[in-house]
Each structure stands twice: as C-alpha cells, then as structure tokens.
Design the sequence.
C-alpha cells in the first residue's frame, strides 16, 4: 500500500466495518475527497481482486487490499466525485462481476422508479418531512417510504431499503444477492430521519431479502421486513434464512375505475355480507389462469346469490392455527392462499365487476411472538411494551402493541390506509376489538397493570381506535368501519363528535351466542329459557348491529353449531334453515359464512337472500325503533315469537317456531284489516321441508288477539320461520266487499223479515189454539159445574 493511501486510511474506524458493528459505514465506504484526489473504499468479503472502472472510455484502477477480510481502497486522480463501478473477481469461483458502489449513492437523493411516472414535486421517497410525520405518529402512508422500493439515484436504478431500528448497533440487508453476508451491505443510520437506509444499485423486483441486526449485547438476529407485501420460504438456503421478504413488481393494472367513483354504501339500504376464505374464493385451483377464471365465476355466483358485500378472510398473513385471536404475522403481506398482492387485487377487481363491495380484516390488536418478526425487533421492545404484563398475552401467546408510541401508530394506521388505497377495500372489519379495549381481557390476576385511574380500560388503545376511525372517515368517507367487539362496550357506533368511536357497525355477538345456546337446550326445557330469545330486542337499537354468523365466531364459540347435531334428520335440517333465516328477519345488517352450514343449502340461501333484498321492511328501518313491533313475545310454552318488521312501504308479519311441534291455525293478532300473503317459509318443500306452509292468502278477521282488533290463523312448522306480507285491500276490493256486505245485510234483513213473519204466524196460530183450548176448558168446567154430565149418565 502506498504511503499516501496509508495516510488517508482510518484504521480504527475500519474495524467497525470489518467486524460489522458500526451504524455509519458510509463515513468510510464509498467515495470521499482526499486533497486533490478521491478516496474510494469498499468492503467485499470473498473478493480476490477489486478494481474501479471509471471514465469514458472506462479505465481500470486496481484497488489495494487493506485487510485480508476483504477491505479494499484506492486513490483516484480526480477531485470531483466520479461516476464509477467496481470490477470484482471472486476468490472462490474467479467469476468477474461489475457492480455499482452502494455507498456512492446517497439515500437522500433517491427518487421513485420511473414506472410511477411522478413529477419531481410529487416524488417524496426521500422527503425528510414525511419521515418526521412517521416519528410523530401521523404518517398514514408509511409503506410508501419504509421498507424496500425500486428507486433511481443519480441515474442508476436499484432498490432503496429503509427500516426503523433505533436501538440497533448495526443493520444490514442480506439476501441471495450477497450470499446472506451481513458484512456486505451495512446500512447507514440517517442523522436526519433516525432510520437505517441504504440504496443498493442494480437490484430489481423479485429479490428476496431480510435484515441482519446486531443488538447492543453483541447478539445478531435475522429479522423480516415489517412493510413487506410478500414473504416466501427459502428452504434451499441456510436454515435461519427461511422467511424472506419479496420485493414485488408494481405492474398490476386495476380495472375498477368506474366502481371507485361510486358511493359504496348508503345508510338504510340492504347490507348482506358473505364471509369467504381464500380457499373458497379460488375453488381450490392453483394454476394462475384457472384461479382467475374461478374468481370471476365465484363473483358472479355471489352476485346471483343475493349478497351485497364480500368479507375476505386471511387476506393479510396471519397464523390461522390460533383460533382464539387474530395473530397477525405481517401487516402488509398477502396471506398464504393469495400468494401476492396482485392476486388480491384480481379478486377485488372480479368482485367489483359484479357490483360487490369488498371488506378486509384488519387486526391491530396483537402480533406474532415469532423471533424473526416484530418481536424485540432491534433488541429492544420496539413495537411491544417493555413490561411483559402489558406487552405479552400469556393465554393467547401473542405480543401486544405499545399504542402510545408514535412510530407504532404510524405503522398500524398506514397498514389500514394501505388496505383502502392499494387494495381498494370498501370496508374494514377491525378484528378482536375487545382484546384491545381491556387491559385484563383474558388475563389472570397479576398478568396486567391497571391504567392511571386504576381501571382496566386500555386508554392508549381506545385513543388509537378513535384515531383510526377518524382517519378513515376524513380521508375515505365511503368506506365502512366495522368492529367485532364482543364484550358489550357501549357507544362504539356513536359518532366521534358525541364521544363515541364512530364505527358504522358492530357485530351482534350476543344475539348469535344466545341463539346458539338456546338451540342446544332440549325442546321440553325451552319454555324456561324463552328470555334467551327476547333479550336481544331490549338492546338492538343501542348500536348499529350486524347479525354475524361468522366462521371466526363459530370457531371460538363454546357451543358452535351444536344445534346441527340433532338426531332427527328432519329437525336437524329444519334447524339449519332456521338459523340464517332468523338472523335475516331480526333487525340488523347481515353477515353469513355459508361454509359453516350443511352442504346443499345454496338454493335455499339464494332464495332467503332474495327475500331480504326484495323486502324493504327487513332493512329500511333497521336503525329505527318503529321498524319493529311485537305481536307476541310471551308464548314460552309453544316456543313461538310473533312480530312485525316495518318500513314506510311494507309491513311483514314474522312467525318463528323454535319447538319440535307443528302449530296449526295458530292465532295471531295483526296490525290491520287486510290480506296476509306468505312470501317465505323455511319449511317449504322446495327447500327440503315438510310443506307445512300458508299456501292460501289469509284474510284478517275481526277477532281480538294479542290486544289487536283483528287476527289471522297461521301454520307454523317445527323449527321454522314464516314471513307474511300485509296487503291492504284495494279500492275495488273494498267496493266489492262493501257490495257483498250490503248484500249480506239485505239478505240478513230479508231473512229476519221472513223470520219475523213466521214468528207472528206461529204466535197467531198459537193464540188461536190457546183461545180454542180455553173455550173448551171453560165449557167443560161449566158442564161439570151444572151437573149435566152426571144427570145425563143417570137417565141412561
């Protein structure tokens, strides 16, 4: 090594590079002015020879080996930083590679790839102000700046990596492109953004990568990319490199432009959600073309079946084996059944093409404790609480977020806006809300810490949830926000301005729980549990509810679908039909997971859905008390409920029989005189029932029942729901009825006149006979009195 070069070398700082324990490798590596020359240093373990190629035409400047581990340096005869690249000869294979120097391209000068077609003013990939928002907890688009992005720096294409790891000693990007060697691409800690950054030239989309992090205690851990949209298992490499982030290509062309211009949902309209897993959506197909065809066919099938929305399960990567809670593995990555975000987008496009809105699950309540993920990311409790009583849930074995930390809020809120902006979600279901609201949810004594007021409410999580809803409603007012909270927390659907949470809907867990529990009770004992059926009607207007027969709930429920284990085949099938039908006629929006019902119910569910969509009384006044009215809620012995569902243009009489007995000609009060025509019956023969229906139009009679002046008599099959529409008489029918009534009265009057005449005739004959009889009696009495009869007998 020349003396001049030796004099410019910082041997002490070099050790930090060689032993990979520095967070500022760019201070040495790359080009630096050295008097009238430029000093270029690089650390390439495994390189035999390295040269700098510079100029036009290129001229080769061999680099000197400063350390046998692979540290090379050279003084270039130019003062201004030149454009150059390395010519690297491998020590093992003698292969020659030409590489750009990562440390010659400042991360702060990176621009988005030209594919995005942004103006310089719009290109904010390296805007420090955006990073400042991240540290303030108000960066709602963090995925655009964090993680890996195809970028251009000083005319050279590559990938910019950026990660938040403030307590790390050193962070490196590793992958197959550098032999998973953490010494090769050590990242720089930015003094402006307090993030680790590195632009690696020549890399393209499709690469797999991870971060190698040296903790303060010297230990090295391998961590996954928090903002990755795709993960894959690289089983062919070393064992600890099995979970790599894939930098996906951003080349999907959306086809739902017209759809996104529409208002997604209007209050007062029918809301019927079909919950589907990815497996169901693709029909088990694995080949790409067949999967797209299956998607389109399924979307058309769902539309024809009468659904308005589709709730997609497990779109974001999670541990599906943990049925107790949504254990999120990655907050931006596609679930295993979707393979990539492009497949998710294709699914959304197919559903939008059929006019179906799409709802995504979002689970910010916890995250996986797996060591290669967010857990103790940089050696400190970065995303979780330091205190295990706040940062870990022993029962569910998951980590809990530290919602008060600004960067955590930016991370989670950005994942929410990512679902809406990048995946075109029309609605968000916030999973496991109860899990977030309570500090002691599912915990034992000693496993939690009370809040500053001594209560069990998670004040940080409450503020976070309100912040999330507020963000969505301000930026995306048409997107539905739904919570599946199960503990009975109040005011979740109350507007934020009224000190509520602002959710559009809340799942009615209690309704489904009570119903499933009731259906497990023996028929003879149901009279003593009748309150299980009527309880939900006491609170159904306290929130805006969704009657959700969800797969998640069924898996978590203690009783599950135990009602389907009925020995009698007829009653078992009847119960399967009754369950979704009862939720359909009960006030509230609807959600159904068809896969948790017996096979062969597709035609039945389609007919049920069409009944719901075509009956305004089942949806229009769902949130108004005047939309529901009891007819009979006290027939506990018969296990029967009778009630009205109403809207301005329609009134329905609903009869539900939860017993194993048929009630024929069951008397029910009705709201008005008129006709009552059955529009749906779960026991119809076309659905596999016994046919105990109300085939004829029932006319109300003036016969008091249920405190009503008029009544009808309906047939209720065992375990069935009957829906009858009130049809008022037309003017013509009223005129005809009036004529008939007048004719009836005329005939009645004529009959009465004849009856009166006959009565008078009878009375006259009776009077005549009585008079004759009295005359004869008087004559006889006179003769007796005169003795004439005796004298006449003596003469003889």
Sequence:
């Amino acid at each position: 090594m020349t003396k001049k070069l030796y004099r410019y070398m910082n041997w002490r700082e070099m050790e930090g590079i060689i032993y990979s324990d520095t967070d500022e490798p760019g201070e040495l590596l790359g080009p630096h002015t050295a008097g009238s020359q430029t000093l270029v240093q690089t650390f390439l373990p495994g390189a035999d020879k390295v040269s700098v190629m510079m100029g036009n035409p290129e001229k080769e400047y061999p680099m000197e080996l400063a350390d046998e581990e692979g540290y090379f340096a050279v003084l270039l005869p130019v003062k201004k930083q030149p454009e150059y690249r390395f010519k690297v000869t491998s020590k093992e294979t003698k292969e020659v590679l030409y590489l750009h120097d990562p440390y010659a391209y400042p991360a702060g000068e990176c621009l988005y790839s030209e594919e995005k077609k942004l103006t310089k003013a719009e290109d904010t990939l390296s805007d420090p102000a955006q990073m400042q928002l991240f540290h303030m907890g108000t960066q709602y688009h963090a995925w655009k700046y964090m993680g890996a992005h195809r970028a251009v720096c000083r005319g050279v294409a590559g990938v910019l990596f950026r990660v938040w790891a403030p307590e790390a000693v050193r962070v490196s990007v590793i992958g197959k492109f550098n032999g998973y060697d953490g010494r090769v691409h050590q990242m720089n800690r930015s003094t402006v953004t307090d993030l680790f950054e590195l632009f690696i030239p020549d890399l393209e989309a499709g690469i797999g990568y991870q971060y190698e992090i040296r903790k303060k205690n010297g230990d090295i851990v391998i961590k996954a990319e928090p903002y990755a949209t795709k993960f894959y298992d690289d089983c062919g490499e070393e064992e600890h490199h099995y979970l790599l982030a894939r930098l996906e290509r951003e080349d999907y062309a959306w086809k739902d432009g017209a759809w996104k211009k529409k208002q997604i949902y209007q209050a007062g309209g029918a809301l019927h959600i079909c919950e589907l897993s990815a497996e169901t959506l693709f029909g088990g197909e694995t080949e790409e073309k067949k999967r797209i065809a299956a998607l389109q066919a399924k979307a058309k099938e769902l539309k024809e079946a009468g659904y308005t929305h589709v709730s997609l399960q497990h779109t974001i990567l999670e541990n599906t084996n943990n049925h107790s809670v949504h254990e999120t593995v990655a907050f931006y990555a596609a679930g295993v059944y979707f393979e990539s975000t492009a497949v998710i987008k294709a699914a959304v496009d197919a559903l939008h093409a059929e006019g179906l809105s799409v709802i995504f699950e979002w689970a910010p309540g916890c995250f996986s404790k797996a060591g290669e993920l967010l857990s103790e990311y940089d050696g400190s409790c970065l995303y979780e609480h330091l205190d295990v009583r706040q940062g870990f849930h022993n029962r569910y074995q998951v980590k809990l977020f530290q919602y008060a930390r600004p960067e955590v809020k930016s991370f989670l809120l950005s994942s929410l806006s990512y679902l809406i902006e990048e995946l075109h979600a029309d609605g968000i279901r916030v999973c496991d809300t109860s899990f977030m609201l309570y500090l002691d949810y599912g915990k034992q004594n000693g496993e939690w810490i009370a809040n500053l007021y001594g209560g069990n409410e998670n004040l940080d999580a409450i503020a976070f949830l309100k912040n999330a809803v507020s963000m969505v409603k301000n930026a995306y007012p048409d997107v539905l926000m739904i919570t599946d909270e199960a503990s009975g927390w109040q005011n979740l659907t109350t507007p934020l301005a009224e000190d509520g949470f602002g959710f559009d809907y809340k799942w009615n867990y209690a309704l489904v729980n009570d119903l499933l529990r009731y259906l497990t009770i023996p028929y003879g004992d149901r009279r003593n549990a009748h309150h299980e059926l009527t309880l939900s009607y006491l609170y159904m207007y306290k929130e805006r509810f969704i009657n959700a027969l969800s797969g998640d709930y069924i898996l978590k429920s203690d009783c599950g679908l135990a009602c389907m284990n009925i020995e009698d085949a007829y009653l078992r099938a009847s119960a399967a039909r009754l369950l979704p039908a009862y939720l359909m006629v009960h006030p509230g929006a609807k959600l159904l997971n068809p896969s948790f019902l017996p096979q062969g119910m597709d035609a039945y569910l389609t007919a049920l859905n069409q009944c719901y969509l075509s009956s305004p009384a089942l949806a229009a006044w769902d949130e108004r008390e005047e939309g529901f009215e009891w007819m009979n809620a006290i027939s506990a012995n018969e296990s029967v409920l009778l009630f009205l569902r109403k809207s301005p243009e329609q009134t329905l009489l609903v009869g539900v029989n939860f017993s194993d007995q048929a009630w024929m000609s069951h008397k029910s009060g009705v709201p008005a005189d008129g006709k009552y025509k059955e529009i749906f019956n779960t026991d119809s023969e076309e659905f596999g029932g016994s046919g105990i229906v109300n085939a004829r139009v029932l006319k109300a009679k003036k016969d008091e029942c249920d405190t009503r002046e008029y009544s009808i008599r309906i047939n209720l099959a065992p375990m069935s729901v009957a829906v009858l529409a009130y049809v008022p008489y037309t003017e013509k029918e009223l005129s005809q009825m009036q004529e008939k009534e007048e004719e009836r009265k005329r005939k009645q009057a004529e009959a009465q006149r004849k009856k009166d005449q006959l009565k008078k005739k009878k009375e006259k004959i009776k009077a005549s006979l009585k008079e004759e009889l009295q005359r004869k009696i008087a004559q006889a009495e006179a003769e007796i009195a005169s003795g004439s009869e005796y004298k006449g007998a003596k003469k003889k």
Summary: The chain is about 30% helix and 25% strand.
